[in-house]
Amino acid sequence: MIGVVSGKGGVGKTTLVANLGSVLSYKFKKSVVIVDCNITTSHLGLYLGMYYTPVTLNKVLLGEEEMGSAMYDHFTGMKVVPASLALKDLQGVDIFNLKDTIKNLFGKTDIVILDSAPGLGREAVSVLRACDEVLLITTPYVPSVMDIIKLNEVINDLGIKPLGVVLNMKSKEKYELKSGEVEGLVELPVISSIPLDKNVQRSLALKTPVVTFMPNSPASKQITSLAARLIGENYEPPGLLSRVKSFFKS
Ligand SMILES: Nc1ncnc2c1ncn2[C@@H]1O[C@H](COP(=O)(O)OP(=O)(O)OP(=O)(O)O)[C@@H](O)[C@H]1O
Ligand SMILES: [Mg+2]
Hints:
Elements lengths: L1 E4 L7 H14 L5 E5 L7 H4 L9 H5 L10 E2 L5 E3 L16 H5 L8 E5 L6 H9 L2 E6 L3 H17 L2 E10 L8 H8 L3 E6 L2 H8 L4 H4 L4 H13 L9 H10 L1
Parallel strand pairs: 1-5, 1-6, 2-4, 2-5, 6-7, 7-8
Antiparallel strand pairs: 3-4
The protein binds adenosine-5'-triphosphate (ATP) and magnesium ion (MG).
């Protein structure tokens, strides 16, 4: 059970969850469930073009439906549990005991990835309480990095395993924090640097994950490497070296 968390909002959690889930499923053939745990501003279903989802996590949290009825098949093979887009569906919903709601997913699935709300509010803390490992995601800027330092303290207090930091939307500008600087500040390794890549927004407009829309785009290659790392597999991004290797193989 991996939580994708951040202190600051808008740093790329939902994008990462949708793409990691997709690539782990269609490329690495894992059984994957991704869950939208950001119930107040839910986007995961929107990012994947899943608009008609009559049963959502909200109904499962209310005890009105089983988790199985809130799971939808995505074309990559992963299963998606969306949260409702309607304000009225927040009435009476308490996400704090998310852990009990999703515990049945253990054993039946290789990987469960939770898309968190940003910050340290009740919604975000429910994800921390529910998962056993977390990826902390940040942009290469001071405010966003400061927020994950705080978040990491909470993660330590709760005894969850931090898998490392994902540095997203890097664009090689001088004013950006470097990987080493982020590692020094957070005291965790940066395990992936995902570039700022227009194809991510293009794919969002098409409601399809960038890893399937453009598997060789700079962001897709990094996300695929991260996915491989999470499951202990080797992945060599297509580039000169792999082209040379396949030339000599044929
Ligand atoms: N590597 C990237 N390159 C370019 N754009 C990106 C990248 N990652 C994310 N984005 C864009 O940044 C925006 C915010 O991403 P996303 O919704 O995934 O963030 P979030 O952390 O889930 O936000 P929130 O905290 O509101 O839930 C989206 O428009 C997304 O397409
Ligand atoms: Mg989000």
